[in-house]
Amino acid sequence: MKELPKTAKAVVIGGGIVGCSTAYHLAKLGWTDTVLLERKKLTSGTTFHAAGLVGQLRSNANITQLLGYSVDLYDRLEKETGLGTGWKMNGGLRLACNEARWEEVKRQATTAQSFGLEMQLLTPSEAQALWPIMTVDDVIGGAYLPTDGQANPSDITQALAKGARMAGATIFEDTAVTDIRIEEGKIKGVQTDSGFIECEIVVCCAGQWTREFAGRFGVNVPLVSLQHQYIITEPIKDLPRDLPTLRDPDRLTYYKEEVGGLVMGGYEPNPITWAVDGIPEDFHYTLLSSDFEHFEPMMELALGRVPALETAGIKELVNGPESFTPDGNFILGEAPELKNFFVGAGFNAFGIASGGGAGMVLAEWVVKGEPPYDLWAVDIRRFGRVHFDTDWVRTRTIEAYGKHYTMAWPHEEHSSGRPNRTSPLYERLKAAGACFGEKLGWERPNWFADLNAGEVPADQYSFGRPNWFDAVAREHHAAREAAVLIDQTSFAKFTLKGPDAEAALDWIAANDVRKPAGSLIYTQMLNDHGGIECDLTAARIGPEEYYIVTGTGFATHDFNWISRNIPPGLQAELSDITATTSVLSLMGPNARKILEAVTADDVSNDGFPFARFKNIAIARCPVRALRITYLGELGWELHLPVEHAGAVYDALMSAGREFGLLNAGYRAIESCRLEKGYRAWGSDIGPDHTPLEAGLGWAVKLKTGRDFKGRTAIEAQKQGGVKKMLACFTVDDPDVVLLGRETIYRNGERVGWLSSGGYGHTIAKSIGYGYVRNAAGVDADFVLEGTYELDVALTRVPCKVHLKPLVDPSMSRIRQ
What we know:
The protein is an alpha+beta fold.
């Protein structure tokens, strides 16, 4: 028996497909002293009972790229290792059985085209030709992705393990990790039941055990175990062996051919939880008792599609628990709570499809200190305080599981576990007709129904114009012509304090934060490649203090980025004060008149210029007023202690009545920001985009001569030019709805896709933003000289391109 090493470069915990893939890729990157520890046998947790479907297309380009890497890896792994993987590139077929689903499929086909995947739309008879044993009486059409496929999960994992060993990694089975030694916040090693291994880096790929294990060290991994069932049939006579994998979302089911029979499973709307009180001590290579009664509705749905199942012998009804997450995306990255503790878990029953790519990006993240590309959709830092509550995580995860095959509507909100975090104004806004959305547990007003006119504050989802279209138009026009008040209490708010606060923030921020007290600085924070990691506002409170405001969903991410990039030795402490501070945004041409009516302080342009803040009093309450805007209008963000929110809100609404003040929500913000050309982090900008590419070069302090994180990359790009440029697109056809991911064509050639889309109610047109790409270089002339079309659900639509704001009230209002 091999002796456990005393030291290792990195220790990977978990011998499923993700753990073995991570060890394989770490060794390939030269970390040959990587050790993988599996408490029982490889694949014995969840991998051995996975269904093994491998699909690639997701709504995010980089996750699609990650899944595509899995396909490429599986395609070559058998040749490299000599072990069979069961990989078949037999394609993937998805059905649509109603008009809404067909619209969804067509938009998915456009997304595939945007991301460089081939997806073919088929008639019902063409789909049946690929899958001859199904009925298609109710089918409107299908989508076929020829590079999808299926694999044998255990075989692929064993091949990855062999490849890891061949590259120099060491794998130990029957070796349980019992503890991690941490001293002064740093990992020193792992304790196993066979001895201690000194190491600085741990990669936890422990599947459904990850939440409990990581939680022992203060790391939050929001996942829970749910039961997932599928049947395996006896061989079916004359069943073709080259059947594509089949997904029938309207019947909630999936299928693949296996040894002449079928595997059929599905995602029921009422999944069954498992191990609520903890996973049994010796659970491995173990299945749960088959629940035929619970599976019966899935079987009935499947019989309507594949009548042969009625007479096929059932070999087994497999019931295996798997880990699922609250948003249906898996979890990757370095834990914000513990340096050098990496996580790869929560794969929501598509761990086989993502295993190859997940291991690759995790390995690069470990070795290089950053992922190979933007992985925000699966980044562990997308979670927050609400996700520490296991009951809440379970409640939301059950909903997400049940929606696995339901319609993916634009702007759809989850309904479970709500309300959780609320503003002090929640009841007031609810009484005023607010239709709330939720972000990181916070209830936020999306739009307001006119209750007097009989409008109902509830979303009705559609791929066309939604039921809230007119309500948002009302709020949008009030913002442009009168004023609106928006509760933005959910903003993440930090303070950076200490003798070296200025020096620390000056290094982390791309813009110049060495401003006098009272200044507001809009800035990005960049990685070493010049990519935008954070997009936020910093207020200079005093010589040793900044007040930092960022988006609701970025609370964990941005706090982690700032705190980890404070240079060693500097005295600067970052604190999260989100819960203590409310925010009311007063925006519109009448904003000053309303503010003047409720405060004795000077809020004139001379007394209170743009990009400044002042402490003022409203209704005898202390308010920190920030003169800034994300709507493109004159306005202020009013930051105040939560206990004063009600009094300040009431005073503003009362004074604003004569000036046309309305409540407004986040969908009006989105409409206005699209017209003004403001960028949204997570869609228009992010780690893969630099300020120069995004048209934000004016916010980079190159002229100061001072160094900052990312400066070298920005200087090089400024000298060499950019290969992509963010541009705005408008469509004249009023029936065209832009949602994002529509393909951009320039002079008939595909040059990119929309990063965001929506509607501008001032210009009465659909608006989209996206990067125009050209390997030889891009400048303003290149962008503006082209003739453009957008592919919307596989229909080419003429559009106009713009590099300046569509609506720009700045000259007349913002700076007056």
